[in-house]
Amino acid sequence: MTIKHSELTFQLMVESVPNAILLLNRDGKIVYINNQAEKLFKYERTELIGQVVEELLPHRYRKNHPTFRNSFFLSPKVRPMGAGRDLFGLKKDGTEFPIEIGLNPVVTADGTLVLASIIDITERKKAEQRFRLVVESAPNAMVLVNSEGTIALVNTQTEKLFGYEREELIGAKLEILLPERFREAHPDRRNQFFLSPTVRSMGAGRDLFARKKTAPKFR
């Protein structure tokens, strides 16, 4: 396969994907973008080729971004960008929007490049906000827990019931809200639920207890 044929194959592949694609060199300069990236950021292709990728970031992120970029090239591997952080892009008209970015190193004759796959998650963020509003408006205490038992979301009623501030609970294990005598066995029961998650009452036929921050238990 010739180099020109390989380049054509790459371009056809990149242009056929539904995500915005940027190809960047070690200096952060854009060497290729696909049609979806033009549509997403509202730029013509010719306006971005040769520009640094920081042009597509809100101004508050531009100063620190080269450091993150350099760290990627020190150990290039497939990974999401900014795991655990909110990321934003900047359109040509100055509009900010939330994004997810996947990074993938590409080895070429000119050295290692990074292929950034970008997804606009505006609608997802709106849905998450609607969900949070529903949870917050509920008259009962509500706790959202992931499969590892880490608390991801609580509402105001939970704060009032257990006596914790929201920041104290987010990221903590659910067992913090249980009397100590139940904590050791609870992860096994939680894991059983996630093996076959269904809508059901917890602990049917058993007395259940919780523990407030100030130590007294309640049913």
TrEMBL record:
GO biological process: regulation of DNA-templated transcription
SMART domains attached to this UniProt entry: PAS
Domain PAS: start-end pairs: 6-51, 127-180
The protein, known as: PAS domain S-box protein
Domain PAC, chain residue ranges per copy: 83-133
Domain of life: Bacteria
